[in-house]
Specification:
By secondary structure, this protein is an all-alpha fold. It has helices at residues 17-32, 39-46, 50-71, 74-78, 80-99, 104-131, 138-166, 173-191, 217-239, 241-248, 254-278, 280-304, 307-335, 341-355, 358-370, 372-396. The protein is globular.
């Protein structure tokens, strides 16, 4: 008998390396928000004011901005894996600062190192997640990058809140768990393929700084203002909301405080997913409008001392922030010259992280004299003005569709 011909075996399915990169991305981002529900415990242990909480939080943003300005383009030269690995090392050093803290000095240093880690990780990991996907996986990888970024930021407070509430050593255990998660990520980073092909001779590493070409400032300025407003709301939830919930709403469960913060970041993820479906030209003004609606709910929650309104505000404002920021990124990336695109997008991130730091410090300063609730109401009013003005401007003069 003639042997039956064997049909060729199908090619092996591509390994979903983008999933591994997304897991690493999420773990790294979670470390930056671990302290969020713990600031009240630090205040009791060390003895500092609410204003100092906002300053400690702002130190993180300083680290992010410095890393973006100095090394935002380094992964294009050195590769994605070295920058991701360096970010994990910085994140581990940050966690160790919190494990061994005995005062403000290590808190400051831990937050600064955490900011450096995010500045390196955000660009390199986002690029790695999208570049490791096959063409068939590209749509899923885009969602994975968004979910890893915002989902990781949101899961950090939930993880630390649960551990601090229900496990021993509330100011140590969350960081030890994060160190264990970082250790698991190391072999993933070492195993994943590198997506940047080295060139010889290797270009010199030079800080890219901020670049906003004059011809695109009409698009960049409203996009940057929208990013500033949206991230200031995220800053409110990660630095102030747990204290407000504890002092005014009778919420003394750290896990619940972490879940409130998680709600804002998950809603941001949903908003970012919805933005392309709405269309960039409409998503930016619409996102600003949704953000304003969420801010109104947050303001009402402060005045009425209502936990339900605060959670509703977190969900609505988070969705608006996600939608407007995704649209801002798309618009700036669309109009920026190719040779200056990376530096221009970094400038947008700088505006966003100014939003997550400067207004929060302002809240802390005003709260010293007027109280946290009054400071929050003033903050909400200011961000409503900024977001409303940007949304109104863009609705009347929408950006041209390419």
């Amino acid at each position: 008998m003639t042997p039956r011909e064997r049909s060729p075996s199908p090619p092996p399915a591509p390994r979903p390396w983008y999933v591994a990169a997304a897991v690493v991305f999420a773990v790294g981002m979670a470390g930056t928000t671990l302290p969020t529900p713990l600031y009240g415990l630090y205040r009791e242990e060390i003895g500092f004011s609410q204003f100092m909480v906002t300053v400690i939080f702002a130190v993180y943003a300083v680290g992010v901005i410095a890393a973006l300005l100095l090394a935002g383009n380094f992964s294009d030269v050195l590769g994605r894996r070295p920058l991701i690995f360096a970010a994990l090392v910085l994140s581990a050093l940050s966690a160790l600062c919190f494990v061994f803290e005995h005062g403000l000095t290590l808190l400051y240093l831990g937050r600064l190192l955490s900011g450096f880690a995010v500045g390196l990780l955000s660009g390199a990991a986002t690029a790695a997640v999208t570049e490791l996907a096959t063409p068939e996986q590209r749509g899923r990888s885009g969602f994975a990058a968004t979910a890893a970024n915002m989902g990781g930021l949101g899961c950090g407070p939930l993880l630390s809140g649960i551990l601090a509430q229900y496990a021993p050593h509330p100011l140590r255990l969350p960081y030890l768990v994060h160190l264990a998660l970082l250790a698991v990520c190391v072999p993933l980073v070492l195993a994943m393929p590198e997506t940047v092909q080295p060139t010889q001779p290797r270009p010199r590493l030079r800080p890219q700084g901020m670049v906003v070409p004059a011809q695109i400032r009409g698009v960049f300025v409203p996009a940057a203002l929208a990013a500033f407003a949206g991230f200031s709301v995220l800053g409110l939830f990660t630095a102030i909301a747990p204290s407000f919930a504890s002092e005014y709403l009778g919420v003394h469960n750290l896990a619940v405080e972490g879940a409130i913060v998680l709600a804002a970041f998950l809603a941001s993820t949903v908003g970012q997913v919805l933005a392309p479906r709405v269309g960039t030209a409409r998503a930016l003004p619409l996102g600003c409008g949704v953000l304003v609606a969420g801010l109104v709910l947050i303001g009402c929650s402060l005045l009425a001392e209502s936990l339900g309104l605060l959670i509703a505000g977190a969900l609505v404002a988070g969705a608006g922030q996600g939608m407007s920021f995704r649209a801002s990124m798309a618009e700036v990336g669309r109009v920026a010259p190719a040779k200056q695109r990376g530096a221009t997008i970094s400038a947008l991130f700088v505006a966003a992280y100014f939003g997550i730091s400067v207004p929060v410090v302002g809240i802390g300063a005003v709260a010293v004299g007027l109280g946290l609730r009054s400071a929050g109401v003033i903050f909400v009013g200011c961000i409503i003005v900024v977001s409303g003005a940007v949304g109104l401007y863009l609705s009347r003069r929408p950006a041209p569709v390419s």
